[in-house]
């Protein structure tokens, strides 16, 4: 996929995955739904994910590799049907791909550690967040580790 100059603020991180497995290994480790979303860039249905309405404090990790991705204090209620965050835990935790699928121009968010699909990020739509961004992330892509 080609990186877009119109969204150049997203493409500063070109991290090379550090967790590399064969598709057979991923298939053996993930449920069919996790595999569909994480490895095939699928999307879970809106309003059904386990973290859509969760307000538990903690850190959200990549379900495929365990990398820490988002903190609960960056999560907000966007009412879009998926967990939403206004920023990742750190910019080097995610990478961005220009996504032209489904006849749309979007920015896909992937785990920098294992290259698993997480969701998409949108900006400039008046979210009222500190970054004016909405990281729309599939619940099935993450595991919440509650704060102690």
From TrEMBL:
Keywords: Metal-binding, Oxidoreductase, Zinc. InterPro entries: Met_Sox_Rdtase_MsrB (IPR028427), Met_Sox_Rdtase_MsrB_dom (IPR002579), Mss4-like_sf (IPR011057). One of its GO terms (molecular function) is peptide-methionine (R)-S-oxide reductase activity. Residues 23-147 form the MsrB domain. It is an enzyme of class 1 (oxidoreductase). Its cofactor is Zn(2+). Signal peptide: none annotated. It catalyses: L-methionyl-[protein] + [thioredoxin]-disulfide + H2O = L-methionyl-(R)-S-oxide-[protein] + [thioredoxin]-dithiol. GO terms for biological process: protein repair; response to oxidative stress. Its EC number is 1.8.4.12. GO terms for cellular component: cytoplasm. This is peptide-methionine (R)-S-oxide reductase. It comes from Psychromicrobium silvestre.
